[in-house]
Amino acid sequence: MKHTLFALAAIVACAHASAAGIASGQPSGTNHPMTEDIIRMCSKPAAPYTNVISDGSIANLNLVYKDPNAQFGIVQADAATYQQGVDKQMMKKIMMVFPFFSTEMHLVAKDGSPITDLSQLAGKNVVEGPEGSGTWVTVQVIKKLTGIKWNGFYASQTDGMKAVVAGQADAMFVVAGAPVKIIKETAGIKLVSLKHAALDGFGLYTKTQLGGLDYPAQKVAVNTYKVDNMLVTYAFKTERQKEITDLVTCIAQNVEKMQTTAGFHPKWKDVDPLDIDRIQWPAHPAAVAAIKAVTKRK
After folding, report:
1. What is the DSSP string of 49-62?
2. Do residues 73 and 64 touch, judged by C-beta distance below 8 A?
3. Alpha-carbon distance 39 to 260, whole Å?
4. Which of 25, 50, 179, 268 is the most buried (most CB within 10 A)?
């Protein structure tokens, strides 16, 4: 009997020491390297974090909801709203724990393409990102709101970019925090203006521009939109409170360091912990308390 108890105790101890997963996205995007920054800053031997590669927002929501190996996930606000319309009961169990950067909508075409704005995608072959990704969700919203019809197909950022450069696709959407590495480093492409009256009035999207320091090869800035991004977890009522508090506290305490220290992703400059009061999604009480405690001390 004693041996059995010792064995059970060992199993429980291992479970508590197991790594907490953060579902991010593909390595070519922005969520993945920023999750690496979090791991670098906040992981400890007794409480490690892992970067869970995924296809993006909808996949991350499902992982947080169902997979014990992914306690946290990075999700676009429009993807959360989209999934709420698909599965309201599931989304009642998803809560924000940290407000992240905004993700910009990139519309990419081959350099020299006659496509210069969103309306010219009608009838064209367009990469919509991996199905279930944040990019894919945003594209579905754009299609529904604008009524523009194109021939959409799914592909990763890497495969989609190859298709655009090779002329096999007319354009590709990428919704990720600027600068997106694959866009910045691919020659022979251009950013296309993304603007429409129906998108101007959509509450989750904010007007912005792309170009300048983020994409030096883009000589003229183009219009586009951005959407909020957030770190979420399951709506734990009594469990995992310490894990949530510890991670949120660590990120909030180190945001300024990650904003000003070389080697961290430039998108940290857009992160403000107090945006947890601004983003329209239920926030976990433990996370709110942790952020308030850190900002009060500052």
Report:
1. EEEE--SSHHHHHH
2. yes
3. 17
4. 25
Question: pLDDT class for 10, splitting at 50, 70, 90?
Answer: very low
Reported as a single tens digit per residue, the pLDDT across 202-255 is: 999 999 999 888 899 888 899 999 999 999 999 999 999 999 999 999 999 999
Number of domains in the chain: 2
Q: Are residues 55 and 154 in the same domain?
A: no
pLDDT digits (tens, 9 = 90+) for 105-114: 999 999 999 9
Please choose, from the candidates 186, 270, 166, the residue with its C-alpha nearest in 3D space to the C-alpha of residue 228: 270
Q: How many CB atoms within 10 Å of residue 282?
A: 14
DSSP three-state, residue 167: coil
In this structure, the answer to whether residues 174 and 84 fall within a common structural domain is no
CATH number at residue 213: 3.40.190.10
d(CA 169, CA 100): 31
For residue 133, the tally of other CB atoms under 10 A from its CB is 30
DSSP 188-251: SEEE-B---HHHHT-TTEEEEEE-TTT-TT--S-EEEEEEEEEEEEE--SSTTHHHHHHHHHHH
Residue pair 136/130 in contact by the 8 Å Cβ criterion: yes
Strand bridging mode 72-76 / 20-23:
parallel
155 and 270, same domain (yes or no): no
Kind of pairing, strands 125-127 and 72-76? unpaired
26: confidence class by pLDDT, cuts 50, 70, 90? confident
More confident residue, 296 or 83: 83
Expressed as residue numbers, the domain containing 235 is: 2-102+229-297
Of 247, 254, 268, 228, nearest to 34 (Cα)?
268
Say whether both 222 and 117 belong to one domain. yes
